[in-house]
Amino acid sequence: MQKLEQRFNIQYAFPVYFVRNIFNGEEQLLASLLLQAGEKRHKILCIVDSGVMDMDPALAGRIEDYAAANREVMQLCAPILTISGGEICKSQPAVIESIVRHIHTHHLCRQSFVLAIGGGAVQDGVGYAAAIAHRGVRLIRMPTTVLAQNDAGVGVKNGINAMGRKNFLGTFAPPFAVINDFSFLDTLPPRQQRAGIAEAVKVALIKDNSFFSYLEDQRHKLAAFERRPMEKMIHQCAALHMHHIGTQGDPFEFGSSRPLDFGHWSAHKLEEMTGSMLNHGEAVSVGMALDSLYSHHIGMIGEDDAQRIFTLLTDLGLPLYHPALALMDASTALHEFQEHLGGELTITLLTGIGSKKEVNRIDTDLMKRCIKELAHRFSGRNEVADHRPDRFAPHFSVLN
Ligand SMILES: NC(=O)c1ccc[n+]([C@@H]2O[C@H](COP(=O)([O-])OP(=O)(O)OC[C@H]3O[C@@H](n4cnc5c(N)ncnc54)[C@H](O)[C@@H]3O)[C@@H](O)[C@H]2O)c1
Ligand SMILES: [Zn+2]
Q: Which residues contact 320 (CB under 8 A, 6 or more apart)?
């Protein structure tokens, strides 16, 4: 037998900026980023979420003016491409094909840039197209939702829905840079703003007790989406996510453990059962309430800590229960969660506010009792009520 062994390491690094009004003409961040990439006129394909463009049609003009004013470092190689925002862009192959076709038709190369302006779904879809064209065109992300700025947009994953399953196709592809422009949030509807706060509660619960206390202190201001606490929350949440991805030794998720997915096994199932009528952040809120109650009932956290979590979620206006939860088969949901990650079932539970433990076994009878208790305590409160149980037809499997 002969054997050769290949081995190499690659260092990845990308900056995440927090700014306002990136295209107002005075802000030079984008131009200087491009300059750092080389003293030449960089080709850029700019792709914008239709939800963003609908709320701010003048955005296209501001981007074009910015490009013209910085023509020595950037060139828009095609008219700005607007694609459907939300889950549609990840579900229709034609959207991804149109991005790949633009990259081909306008002769972008691996040194060119795709600029993605949009929510988490657009970031995922555009990121996927940019990653597969030429095996990777450089990507600058400009996330425009709270959830994309504090979670989805600052990580290393992309994905689209295929084979009837969510995020079935996708890659791990770190971006060139991320620019979180808070001014995009000015047009974001309240429901989307609130959904993003759920991910901040999640990361505080598993990693940072003092961040949880901050969210508690500021919860009424956050519920009213006051600018300063919202911006601080986004910054700290993004920092914690980035710290986790960068320091825990498994950025490309080769192992079975995904501690950042606290509350997510049932959240994924709820998104599926409601056909995404319950959005990701709302489903995560319900999932966190469930796993916090379970953590309490197996003696890992006290009643007072569980109550603090329920009060925070409630006061933020997030749901703690949804009727689809009563119809959920916990064993199947846990099995599907395990299947996507591969390996042994690994579920993150809490041992306190800001500390977690991974377990490999869940008592599904106790989990069912926890669901009943949540129904009893929180049914009707902050519930997302625009759909009935008879409409919980499976839509697609949700795997983030
Ligand atoms: N890659 C990852 O690591 C990761 C992590 C978490 C979630 N995700 C994905 O992110 C997606 C959810 O992202 P999301 O919560 O940002 O929602 P979203 O991208 O689905 O957007 C929600 C809605 O808001 C609109 N919108 C976006 N920005 C706006 C703005 N500034 N003003 C007005 N409307 C705006 C969109 O058009 C859409 O209709 C899911 O597909 C999920 O799978 C990915
Ligand atoms: Zn999430």
A: 285, 286, 289, 310, 313, 314, 374, 377, 378, 381, 382
Say if residues 126 and 214 touch (Cβ distance below 8 Å).
no
Instruction: Using the mean position of ligand 2's atoms as its centre, give its distance from the Cα of residue 108 in Å.
Output: 32
Check whether domain 16-187 has CATH 3.30.70.260, yes or no:
no
Q: What does the pLDDT average to over 388-398? A: 43
| Least confidently predicted of 24-33, 102-111, 251-260 | 251-260
Residue whose C-alpha is closest to residue 106's, from 127, 72, 67, 134: 134
**pTM value surpassing 0.90:** yes
For tokens 């409601």, what's the residue? 274
Which pLDDT belongs to residue 249? Answer: 83
Question: How far apart are alpha carbons 373 and 369 in whole angstroms?
Answer: 6
Answer for the pair 355, 210: CB distance below 8 angstroms, yes or no. Answer: no
Distance from the CA of 365 to the center of ligand 1, in angstroms? 34
Distance CA 178, CA 12 (A): 14
Q: What is the CATH number of domain 190-222+239-246+253-391?
A: 1.20.1090.10
Break the chain into its structural domains and give their ranges.
16-187, 190-222+239-246+253-391
Ligand 1 test: best mutation among 203, 280, 282, most atoms within 8 Å of CB? 280
What band does 394 get if pLDDT is binned at 50, 70 and 90? very low
Per-residue pLDDT of 326-362, as tens digits, reads 999 999 999 988 887 778 999 999 999 999 999 999 9
In this structure, are residues 309 and 353 in contact, taking their beta carbons and an 8 Å threshold?
yes
C-alpha triplet 217, 292, 218: angle, nearest 5°? 10
* CA distance from start to end of the chain: 41
Nearest to 107 by CA among 127, 83, 125, 133: 133
Which residue has a Cα nearest atom 27 of ligand 1? Answer: 119
Q: How far is CA 295 from the centre of its chain?
A: 24
- For atom 13 of ligand 1, the residue with the nearest CA is 120
C-alpha of residue 120 to centroid of ligand 1, in Å = 3
